Structure formats: structure tokens, C-alpha cells
Amino acid sequence: MLVDLHSHTIFSDGRSTHAEMVEAAIAKGIGIYGIADHLCFHDNPWTTRLDQFEEMRSTFANLKANTTSAKILFGMEVDYVRGCENRVLRLKEENHWDYIIGSVHYIGDWNIDSNAADWEGKDVDATYTKYLELLEEMVDTKLYNIVAHLDLPKKYGHFTDIDFTDRYRAIGEKILANNMAFEMNTAGRIKICNEFYPRRDIVELYHQLGVDVTLGSDAHHRNNVGQFFDEAVALLKEVGYSRICYFEEGQKRYLPL
Prior knowledge:
The protein has seven helices and eleven strands. By secondary structure, the chain is of the alpha/beta class. It has a single domain (2-256), classed as TIM Barrel, CATH 3.20.20. α6 (200-209) links the parallel β8 and β9 (212-216). α4 (124-140) packs parallel to α5 and α5 (165-177) packs across α6 (200-209). It starts with a strand and ends with a strand.
């Protein structure tokens, strides 16, 4: 049975409804499917508005009650922004999410994820350094269950020559200690970088450390649900993983690969 915990709908920046995404997941044979729309504390057009949460809770209640071909999970992808920890905690308590995907999209006021042109003139090495610093801070909060796209700065083809193995190891050790997981995010295969997030050597390192992994397509359209999962599962097995995890009501559960 496959798991896909990372998808977005029209509530944030997706282009398909919850029902359409669930239908696509079932058609792909995904037995455990989670939708995690964006919640960001910067002013942007792709965050779920707070006035949408009541409707979202109702939508998930209906999906969970009426979907028999797959287990439906209510997630949220919540950006880490310094100083917003109490807001995340309050929203977590109000919405009863099954899990929270933690992500870093902003370095200061710069959204590194949305526009390739915004990278012009930027110091790539410094961007990676700051990104990983924020990612580690996010893990330290213990508010999140899953760490999203661990090497996101490569999205537009910007790679660093700095060896960040020690920093990734430190982050991985904290993910493990906090009973979290990282995701094999397959959306990178349709980006300029043309590879999964994270790259293979990080996956190998995290397997050596004993860090749990889950799968996420980061689909923004029903056609992308479960994209490249055959390749992702093959890679995980080659590295040595024999199981994947998911979170239900905040509790980690496992499935064999």
C-alpha cells in the first residue's frame, strides 16, 4: 500500500478540489492519502485564509466519513517563520490536523520557491546556509511531524559546492530524536533541478541514522498525485528502507514498502 501525504487543493495554490484529488489518489492505488494545503504567515496568494478553515474542517469530515477505498488524512503544510510558534500551536489545537508538514519557503521576506527570476544576483551558498539554519530551527520547535523538501533551494537549478553533510546530519539526528519523519518529495522531478527532494546521498545518510521516511507528491493538480512513486519506492529500497510512515491524529504509523 502506498502513502501520499503532500498535496494541495484550490484552498491554497492547487488547481483541483479535494474530491478530485481523492478520486485521483484512489485511481493510482494510494491507500492512505493526505491533503496538506499551505499555511503561510507572509502575505501571499497561495496560503489558505483563516476564514476558510471552518469549511476545510467540514470538507475533511465528509471525506473521511464517506471514502471507503482509501484512508483520508487531514494535514497542513505550515511554513516556519520565526515568532509564529504560538500561532501554529493554537491553529493545531483548533483544527485537529492528523499531521503537520513543516517547510521553509521564505528567507526573510524573500520567497525562494515561486519565481526563478528572483534568484538573480543572489548568493547561492549563503541561501543554502540560511535555509538549513531555518530548517533546523523548525525541527527544534517540535511542532511539526514531517520535514518537507529538505534541499528546496535547488528547485531552479541552483546547486552549492559547500559540503553540508554535517548540517544535514545534525538536522537528521533532531528529526529522529523528535519522532518526526522526512519526506521523499517527488515534485522535484518536474522542476528545473529534475531530481527528488532530497537528493540520494541525504536519503542514504538518513537511512544510516534511522530516520523515518514518508512519500509526498506535492501535487497541485489531480494529474500529479502519486507522481514518480515507482521511482521513489525503488530508490528507497535500494538505499535500504523497508518501511514508510504516516501520521494519524499525530501518531506515527508504519507500512511495509
